[in-house]
Amino acid sequence: MGVEELLHVLKRINKERRDPVDEAILNQVMALVIKHPLDEDRTTCQTQIEEIINQRVGGNRK
Amino acid sequence: MMIERIKMHNFGPFYQDHEIIFANNGSGVHLIRGDNGQGKTSIQRAILWCLYGKVVDRKGQEIRPTSLINRAAQKEDIYQFAVIINFNHEENEWTISRKMEAKTNSDKKYIEGMQINVIKDGIPLPNPQQEIERILPFDVNRFFFFDGEMLRDYEELLDQDSHAMTILRESIEHVLGIPYLKTARDDLYEVQRRMEREISKHIRKLGGKAFEEIVDDFQSINEEIDDRKNEIKKIQHQIAILETEISDQKRRLADIQSVQKLARQRIETERGIETLEAKRDALMADIRKNASQMYKTILANTSESIIAHLQEKHDAVMAKYNEKQRLIGRADDIERAITAQKCKFCGTVLNELALQGLKSELKDLRIQIKNLTEVPEPNLEYENHLNRLKLLKDSIIDRSVFKNIETKIFEIDHKLGSENSKLVGLKEKLKGVDEEEPRELEIDIERRTNEKGRLEGRKSSEEKRLLENLDAKANLEQKMASIDQEELKVLKKRIQAVKAIAEVIDAAVCAYRDERRSDVEKKASDIFREIRTKESFSRLEINEQFGLNIITDDGTVLNRAEWRSSGEEQIVALALIGALNRCAQVRAPVFMDTPFGRLDTKHGKKVLTFLPKFSDEVVLLVTDREFRKGDENYLEGKIMSDHTVLHKGEKQGSIIVKTMGAG
What we know:
The complex is a heterodimer of chains A (62) and B (663).
Chain A: H1 3-16, H2 23-35, H3 42-56
Helix pairs in contact in A: 1-2, 2-3
Chain B: E1 2-11, E2 14-21, E3 28-33, H1 40-52, H2 65-68, H3 71-75, E4 80-89, E5 92-101, H4 107-112, E6 114-120, E7 123-124, H5 128-135, E8 145-147, H6 151-159, H7 163-175, H8 178-207, H9 212-292, H10 294-340, H11 352-371, H12 380-394, H13 399-429, H14 437-481, H15 486-531, E9 537-542, E10 548-552, E11 557-558, H16 560-563, H17 566-583, E12 590-593, H18 601-610, E13 617-622, E14 639-647, E15 654-658
Parallel strand pairs in B: 3-13, 3-14, 8-12, 12-13
Antiparallel strand pairs in B: 1-2, 1-4, 4-5, 5-6, 6-7, 9-10, 10-11, 14-15
Helix pairs in contact in B: 6-7, 6-17, 8-9, 8-15, 9-13, 9-14, 10-11, 10-12, 15-17
C-alpha cells in the first residue's frame, strides 16, 4: 500500500467529472503535499503548488 | 523505516551504556526476552522518547524526565541520559540522538537541557523534530509501538462516542493517509485566495481608476468571505465540541438512569427476599410442628402389636371374669334351692339325694369361684391406653408431608440464593451514586443544547451571509470579466484550474476514506482468518468508527459485548492493527510488548506463525511464559536477533545479552 491507491482514487474521481483536470497537476500537487505534510510546511508547499499551477496553466507568466 | 540499532545511556533501568543491534539491517523478527520488571518495556519507551521527546505510561500519563533517568546514575549525581537510534529510511541512513542533561535532578532543568539531533547520510538536519514527524508522525506511533496489554483499549475506544474516540479515529485516518487529501484541498484553497489577491492587483493595474471601486469591493468581499469561512469553521468546531460533550453527558445520564432502574430493582429484590424469607419461616414452623408429632409415627408401628397383645390379654381376663360371674350366679341359685329345698324353676320339692347332689355341686362351684378370684376386675386404665393408642395410629404423619415441605424450602432457598446474589450485585453497582447528578446533568445538557442551538443559528446566518457574499463576488467577477486583458485571462484560468483541482480532491476525501475502510476490513478479515481458532468466525466487519464486529458462518454479527473472551478481543485488535499497518502510508517497524499475554497456546501459535507478515521488521518483547521453548519453530527461521534483558540489582541495573542457546 502506497500513494498509488490515493492517486488512483483521485484519477477515478477526476475522470468522472464533466471537465477533468490535468492528471499531471493532480499528481504533482499530491506529491508535494505528501513530501510536506506538516503544519510548518504549509507556506512552502502552497508556494510550490502555485508555481506548478503557473507553469502548467497559461504559460509561465506572472 | 528499519531500526538497526538502539543505544541507551542511563535510561530507565539501564545504567551507563547499553545497545541492541537488530541484525540483517533490522529486517525480520527480533526477540527481546525477559521476565517481568527486567526492562523490556523501557526499551520500547526509549525509542519513543528518542523520537518524540516524551513517553507515556500504561495509564496514558506522560512519564517525567526525573522518572526516566537511571536511579544509580542519579545516586552518583549524574543527571544525564540519552538514546540514539540508527535506522534506514527510504534508502538513507539516519541517526536520531536525544539527550537530556541537567545540573540538578529537576524535570524543568532536564527539559531545558534537552538536545536533539537528526542526521541523514552524515548531514545534520536543521529542523530535527519536523524531520521525525515526516518519517513517523507522533499520532500514528500507537499502531507501530504497542503494548499487548493495551490492545483491548483500541476496540474499547472505538466503541465510545467520546473525544478519545475522535482522536483515535483521526489517528487511523492519519495512518491511512486521508489527511494528505484534506491538506492538499486546503492548500489549494489558500493558493486560490492568493491568486484572487493577485488578480485584484492586476485589475487595478490594468483597469485604471474606473475599476478602483470594483477592485476594492472585490478585495473586501474576498476578505469577508475568508472571515466568514473561518467563522463558520470556528462555529462548526464549537458545535462539534458541544455535540461531543452532550453525547458524553447523555451517555452518563443513560448510565445513571440505568442506575436508578437498578435502585428500583434493589427495592423490589429486597421485598421479594423478605416475602421468601417469611414463606420459609412458615414452612420451617410447619416442619417443627410435624417433627414434634413424629413420636406418634414412631410409636404407631409398635402400637399395633401392643393393641393386639392388650386386647388378647383383656379378652382372656374378660372370659375368666364372665365365667366367674356365671359360676357365682349358679352358686347363688343352688344356695337358694338348698335353702328352699325346692327347684327354683319347677318348684319340685328336693329329696335328700338331690340336696346332697346340689351341695356337692355348690362345693365344686365354690372351689372353681375361688380359683377364679385372682382374675382382676375390668381395667378402665387399659381402655384409656387402648383408646390413646388407637388415636395415635390415626395421627401418623406421612413422610411425603416432610418431603413436600422440604421441596418447597429448597425452591425458596434456591430463589433466595439467586435473589441475594442479585442484591449483592445491585448494591455493588449502586455504590457511590450521587442522587443529584441526573438533575444536574439534565440541566447541563439543556444548557449545552441551547448553546448548540444558538451556535447553529449563528452558523446558519453566517452561511446565509456567505452566500450573499459569494453572489456579490460573482457579480463583481462578471464586471471584471469585461476587462479583456490577456494577463487577467490567464490568472482567471489558473484560479479555475485551482478550484477544479480542489473540487476533485475534496470529492476524493470521502471516496478514499470509504475505499480505505473497506480495504482495512478486507485485510483485517484476511489476518483474522489466519489467527483465529474458531472456524465458525468467518470474517470481520468494519463500521464507520473503524470498530470491528465478528461475522460468523451463518451471518450472525457478534459485537464486542458478545465476544466475551478478552483473548478474542485481542485477536480482533491485532487483526485491525495488522490491517492498518498493511494499508498505512507510513512504513515503520512493529514493536509488540507482551503481545501474547491474553492469548491461549493455540492463538499464540497462530499469531506467531503470522508475525513475520506483520511488517518487514517485527520486534517482540516477550516473557518466557509467552514465548516458550520451541516457539522459535513457528517463526520458520525468521528470527534475526535474540536478546535477553536481565536485571542485575539496584546498582548495576538491567543489562542486555544475547539469549543463551539462541541460534
